[in-house]
Amino acid sequence: MHYNTAKANVHEQTDLRKKLRNSLTPAEATLWKLLKNKTAGGYKFRRQQGIGPYILDFYSPELQLCVELDGSSHDNKYEYDEQRTQYLNNQGICVMRFRNEMIWNNLMGVVSEIVRKAKEIEAQRKMEAL
Description:
By secondary structure, the protein is α+β, with helices and mostly antiparallel strands. Helix content is about 50%, strand content about 20%. A four-stranded mixed beta sheet has the order 1-2-3-4, with helices on both faces. It is globular and about 40 Å long.
């Protein structure tokens, strides 16, 4: 498994992950329409994926790429978000964060940035494999 120490989708989070999947925020639902079924550059994403103690908004296990949407609930939680990002980075997971406003103001730009990062990760892995 590609997680260094974190367990994916721990049993204790099952109900919460299911609840979150069934009650996406409007921004999450909008982005999910463009990430599901490999519609964003052919890359597979999951929603509400558990990694260790955290539940990620969107996650590509193949790329180890996390996409987080930050709405008003993240205001004044910079320290928590930084700890979370550091934890995920320590697991080898790249974290991209976007404010909800970016979904409403530039949805295709957000998707393009996600695909750009996915291609960058893919290219880096190919170079490392040489």
